[in-house]
Design goal:
The complex is a heterodimer. By secondary structure, chain A is an alpha/beta fold. Chain A contains 8 helices and 7 strands. The N and C termini of chain B lie far apart (43 Å). The chains are: A alpha/beta, B alpha/beta.
Amino acid sequence: MRPDLEIIQKWIEPNSRVLDLGCGDGDLLHYLKTTKQARGIGLEIDEENIQHCIENGVNVIEQNLDQGLSNFQSNSFDTVLLAQTLQALSNPDQLIDEMLRIGEKGIITFPNFGNWKSRLYLATKGRMPVSKFMPHQWYDTPNIHFCTVKDFDALCRDKNIKVLTRTVVDSQLKGSWAMKSWPNFLGEIAIYHITKD
Amino acid sequence: MATDLSEDSVGIVEPQQIHIDEPLTLRSGKVLPACDIVYETYGELNAEKTNAILVCHALSGDHHAAGYHADDEKKPGWWETCIGPGKAIDTNLFFVVSMNNLGGCGGTTGPASVNPETGKYWGPDFPVVTVRDWVKSQAMLMDRLDITKWAAVVGGSLGGMQVLRWAISYPDRLANAVCIAAAPKLSAQNIAFNEVARQSITTDPNFHDGYYLEHGTYPKQGLTLARMVGHITYLSDSAMRAKFGKTLTDFESEASNFGRDLRSGKLSFGFNVDFQVESYLHYQGERFSANFDANTYLLMTKALDYFDPSVDYDGDLSKAFSYGNCKFLLVSFSTDWRFPPERSRELVNDLLNAGREVTYVEVEADQGHDAFLLPIPRYINAFKGYLDRVHEEMSGNAS
């Protein structure tokens, strides 16, 4: 399982309703269904991922997040997930509002652009960071809205979003006391558990 | 090649008939005292009777959904692409039931049957039947086959509407609902096309107010015209361009042909059939009119027009879906302008609002509404993936 998903699943209550935005191949929803009897629905646009969800017995709806979530009723889910997809959205701030309209709680994970590796890359090479973790060139990347942990904290403050838990880890899922102290500098993946304030 | 008895066909099949001596109260309030139902089955029913799938046919379909009636039959059943060993509806796994709907002309009691009370053809006196009535009669057949719950009810277009009705009328009697290229109800445009079709039939001089069989004739012209109009709505603009635009010239590529292939290579400068598309529509219409009952066509189009399960739920379809726990698979096709993807998305939203488990796939396909009958890989893979999973979960082999 992807490292961020490992942490996320701990925040899902048994029997809860989960909406997974950009659910990928449905592995997390499948895991939540079998271990926590969660009733999940995933949204996805990639054909191969959708097929994988279907074969996995995961409910998946072909829907583009950039076209909004107005078809979902308010407070219809316990948790709305957005894993590693925030940076690829046209209007991430609006989608976060929608997540907390539809769900009681939201879980968001994103690659932290404030990580020291990105800073070092930009500082020394003077070019947009490209790594194994973020392999795209600036002109053909799906990731059009990178942000840092500090940026995201600021957005939560502006929107009066309550951060229940903030975790940062490296790409191997490892956290450390150092990362806790300097999350924006050392964390590679940021994981937020949020709710309406 | 006459008959394709390849490994993925169910091969030679024989229709079966059952007499149901039980009055059926129709939505109109009229009562059909008894009826005959003609149906086919493919595959084997397991000992627990849990692997049965009901296939619902669309406007011009019937019970003959797969396989061949005879060695020399040229065309297989209407859903041969999806039903057979190893296919989306895998007859190695499932027992498939397909019946001709009430009011049909494939052998089930309908306008072309003789009314035992009068000794004459029912003709236009056959009561108007609705999707709800069909589903009721399908449940009557189900009882007689001793099946308590369908593993899935499956259908496209008008067949998909029957699937929706099953989930509303008998929510505990199906585990899965597979609804392809359907809509929650018809739009004004849909009804308009149906009315043109009906008018072309009823204004044919050979229609005789529907009593044409008594006169030893039938409204061939009207039925041909009805089918021609219908056929246009089943195809997309791009499908027609591709189908009738194969001629390449020095100055014209396939893309710039616009589907304007000529039938005989030159214009007639008369009011004859000049273009291939015209010839094709005439052929389709005439072939259809020779094999289909005009009164049935009227009934089927009315059943479409009347379909709107939300009427009993203050116009809120999500309320109609609020009871039951069957899962749903919905599929739509990008160029389908008869029941376009937006209509399927309306259904998806109603199901979500009802808190139901739903999977929805929007298939990119050029073929218009007809796509649901065609072997489009993404569609077939999703359909098969879903039903294979149903079988795995049913057998307790799911991971």
